[in-house]
TrEMBL record:
Source species: Candidatus Kentrum sp. UNK
The name this protein goes by in its record: Fibronectin type III domain-containing protein
Pfam families reported for this sequence: fn3
Coiled-coil residue spans: none
Gene3D superfamilies noted in UniProt: Immunoglobulins
InterPro entries cross-referenced by the UniProt entry: FN3_dom, FN3_sf, Ig-like_fold
Source organism, top-level taxon: Bacteria
Fibronectin type-III domain boundaries: 112-202
Lineage: Bacteria, Pseudomonadati, Pseudomonadota, Gammaproteobacteria, Candidatus Kentrum
């Protein structure tokens, strides 16, 4: 048995087919409970109501956009006032409570990261080495890590690579020499203290 459709477009399409069938084949359907003319009137009514609903929905959507725009402007104005109040009162919470704005803290400037911890070299091979370490437990947020290398007998360090995560594999390293590696956490404010060093002959 056929199922009556649920989607509006399918109901509308079926209505057109019923009207056409009743109109073109009266010999098959001589006395329908609803005539083709009456059904056409109901279809026309639905079409007008659907068009009105679309217009109202468009108006409602526009009203929502206007409301959201006003809310954004309101929020921006409030933020300006609150930033002014924070600076005017030096972030004094007792004073800011008069504006319903408490629990604020003065912004702290970005600081360099702390010292990178527990550098290890669990794997290595000819000309390459895998290093991993722990992030600093103090200082500001780390933006990246700089991996440095020094050769035995040298007091200088050269940059051997960079990493975003707390591990990296360095390739193309000098072979057959005593090398020492260390890692330095960095951000826009500067560099942290170097990690412990690990020695290796690759």
């Amino acid at each position: 048995m056929a199922r009556f459709p649920k989607a509006e477009s399918q109901i509308q399409s079926l209505a057109h087919e019923i009207i056409t069938g009743l109109t073109e084949h009266p010999e098959l359907f001589p006395n329908p409970p609803i005539s083709a003319e009456e059904l056409q009137k109901m279809l026309d009514t639905y079409t007008r109501d659907a068009d009105d609903a679309k217009e109202q929905q468009a108006t409602a959507n526009h009203a929502i956009d206007v409301k959201n725009g006003s809310l954004e402007v309101l929020g921006d104005d409030m933020k300006q006032i609150l930033r002014y109040a924070e600076n005017a009162t030096s972030f004094d919470n007792a004073s800011l409570k008069y504006l319903g704005w408490a629990g604020c803290h003065a912004r702290t400037s970005l600081q360099a990261p702390g010292q990178t911890r527990i550098l290890e070299a669990p794997r290595r091979g000819a000309g390459w080495i895998f290093l991993d370490w722990k992030a600093p437990d103090d200082g500001s947020k780390v933006a990246a890590y700089k991996v440095q290398r020094s050769e035995e007998g040298s007091e200088s360090w050269i940059d051997a690579g960079t990493a975003i995560e707390t591990e990296t594999t360095l390739s193309g390293q000098p072979s057959g020499r005593q090398l020492e590696f260390r890692v330095v956490a960095i951000n826009k404010a500067g560099e942290g203290q170097p990690s412990n060093g690990v020695q290796a002959v690759l």
